[in-house]
Amino acid sequence: MQEQQSLSRFYDEPKAQRPCLLIVEDEAIVAMDMAQQLDELGFRVCGIADNSSEALALAQHHKPDLVLMDVVIKGPRDGIETATVMVAEQQTPVLFLTAFNDASTVQRAVAAAPYGYLTKPFQIRELLAAIEVALYKASLEQRLKASERWFSSTLRCVADGVVALDAEHASAS
To answer: How many Cα atoms occupy the beta-carbon half-sphere of 93 within 13 Å?
Structure first.
């Protein structure tokens, strides 16, 4: 257990500041085990869902930093369809965790714009690496969107013309 704790850079942060992860898994024992391991690694598990409607409601309420989504979940909507809705409506980052790696499932999953795809069974180190990469990518995308909003707002507020020059042409006085 001590080895697992040292793997995560989030373990020493106050619990409220740790990344919030939502687990969407139809097997309760697997979900509870994963939640315990993630907690030991220093993450905050903000909920566990076993179906699409519960997952969407928890994502809306908790605004997780990342959703760990199984492809096969309970109910009429599978994990890929659920992830597609989450990404489109809530811009929630999703990491697929599934036993399926056939071409058609992977192609469907890719269309949902996930931040990763990990095939079960996996080692905790693999899961941690996938989570770290997904969280970093999500952080970069958030900063990029904020920058785009700032530039867009700035350009809308400019009444005069804007001239952009590179370093070679900057001294046109």
So the answer is: 23
Q: What is the pLDDT of residues 134-150, one digit of tens each?
A: 999 998 887 777 777 77
Residues 6+ apart with CB under 8 A from 33: none
Domain at 2-160, CATH class: alpha beta
What pLDDT is recorded for position 161? 61
Nearest to 70 by CA among 92, 49, 46: 49
Which structure tokens are listed for 10? 């989030």
d(CA 8, CA 17): 14
CA distance 118 to 68: 10
Tokens of 123: 């080692």
Query: In the chain, what are the domain boundaries?
Result: 2-160
Strand partners, 51: 74
For the entire predicted model, the pTM comes to: 0.78
